[in-house]
Design brief:
This protein is mostly helical and 165 residues long. 70% of the residues lie in helices and 0% in strands. It contains 7 helices and no strands. Helix 1 packs antiparallel against helix 2, helix 1 crosses helix 3 and helix 1 packs across helix 5. The protein is globular, with a radius of gyration of 18 Å.
């Protein structure tokens, strides 16, 4: 009975955060819920949990990796720009845009998977480029390029919505 109570407590403490993390990467609520559950089930199924120092960090890492794996399995994620670095890329976006949270969420969900994943990991989860490289296995130069292009694309979408709303 005590083990069941511990599971409920862990679920209550981490489920919403894991779901939101996965949702930002996948852009699909059903898939995000499955990944969240898979992440928690992986923890529950472990026989030896003594190696886990920080449960929050461990679950986040598992959830992010499972979300990325889900993208790859569905063949939505394309590893384009492997060796491409465009020196002409600058880091400018529409600085004058001031959209509300709902518009940002909608715009982010409309981005291609690769942009959405990199932007979510960097902006919302706080990972730097090197950490994103380690998590995803994508080259650092490609991560930076995807981030810059994704941010630019997000700004374009927000700018368009500003004029159409």
């Amino acid at each position: 009975m005590k083990n069941s109570m511990d599971m409920e407590k862990i679920y209550d403490e981490h489920a919403v955060r894991l779901y939101n993390m996965s949702l930002r990467i996948l852009g699909d609520s059903c898939e995000a819920e499955e990944v969240m559950h898979d992440s928690l089930l992986q923890y529950y199924g472990m026989k030896d949990r003594s190696g886990i120092v920080d449960l929050r960090k461990w679950l986040s890492s598992v959830c992010i990796r499972k979300s990325i794996d889900r993208l790859r399995q569905k063949k939505k994620f394309k590893d384009f720009l492997d060796d491409y670095e465009d020196p002409a890329l600058d880091d400018t976006t529409g600085e004058d845009i001031n959209p509300d949270v709902e518009n940002i969420r909608k715009a982010l969900s409309s981005l291609p998977d690769n942009y959405r994943m990199i932007l979510s990991l960097h902006l919302f989860e706080g990972y730097d480029y090197e950490e994103i490289t380690q998590i995803t296995g994508i080259k650092a130069v490609t991560v930076r390029t995807l981030y810059i292009r994704g941010r630019r694309k997000l700004a374009e979408i927000l700018k368009q919505r500003q004029w159409t709303d």
